[in-house]
């Protein structure tokens, strides 16, 4: 039997009130409820004591989440993990906790409250509200920067198995991960290919904290960490330049500048590997179409792109699109070489 279809007005109401659910998820993730439940069910009194929260309010949030399959109330005010809630554990191999926290933090959530500014002007709502770009903001707000990098690690943990399964890195000798954060993806690649070397390139305030991730993957001795801006110069020495969720942060002019800087140090037989979602044509549902709106709100000029838009962008940087390697997730590897 198929579940009953909700009336159209109820479906619309659920869409409009979606932030009620996302903020409940944020509260549970921020309070590490799933971590507290990893050893088994707990009464709400115990959870409230562990999280220093109001027991009645916490119960109401967990009851609401249990109603959509996140946690389960096993007896009066006693909760346990569900398969869905497991992904809120910080130690889950594909944990989404970092992402859920980032999306609920004030600097992200409040920027979305100004979406009309973005729609009316085409400008970043984040920049309008905070008076600076998001990456400038991170440079002076280390706690927010750490939350962002943890979220990017969270994305990597879910996307890296797909990238590693569908793309063969064995022909390369040195991979430069441009804007590679703490090195979650690069660390996984180097771990799978023990003859490969890596260069992790990002802002100083990022790479200064990357050593634990690289050591966890056991690749610290094969990976250099270099700080700098990809708008100024990019380290030479690689035959593959990897950019995961970098190009979508920027408008065409800035994205072309980044790609040109990669091309400037790319050997003739080298490859540029842009890892992004590709927006499909037509009306079909796509996470890329919603992420595109997030880029509109959060990043000046940021956007997701179609395959044709990527081909045009790469050509403007003196590169030729060679193929798009798709995965079972929405992340793709967009491969390019010198034109």
Report on this structure.
With 339 residues, the protein is of the alpha/beta class. It has 2 domains: 8-92, Orthogonal Bundle (Arc Repressor Mutant, subunit A); 158-338, Vaccinia Virus protein VP39 (Rossmann fold, 3-Layer(aba) Sandwich), CATH 3.40.50. 47% of the residues lie in helices and 16% in strands. Strand 4 (174-178), helix 12 (184-192) and strand 5 form a beta-alpha-beta unit. Helix 2 packs across helix 5, helix 4 (44-51) packs across helix 5 and helix 11 runs parallel beside helix 12. The longest helix is centred in the middle third of the chain and has 25 residues, at 142-166. The N and C termini lie far apart (55 Å). The mean pLDDT is 95.
The counted number of beta strands is 10
Task: Return the string of H and E elements.
Answer: HHHEHHEEHHHHHHEHEHHEEHEHHEE
The unreliable regions are none
Give the CATH H-level superfamily of the largest domain.
Answer: Vaccinia Virus protein VP39
The major beta sheet can be summarized as: 7 strands, mixed
CATH-defined fold name of the largest domain: Rossmann fold
- Helicity range of the residues? 40-55%
Going by helix content, strand content and strand pairing, the class is alpha/beta
Termini separation comes to 55 Å
Mean pLDDT: 95
- Counted up, domains total 2
**CATH architecture descriptor of the largest domain:** 3-Layer(aba) Sandwich
In spatial order, strands of the major sheet run 6-5-4-7-8-10-9
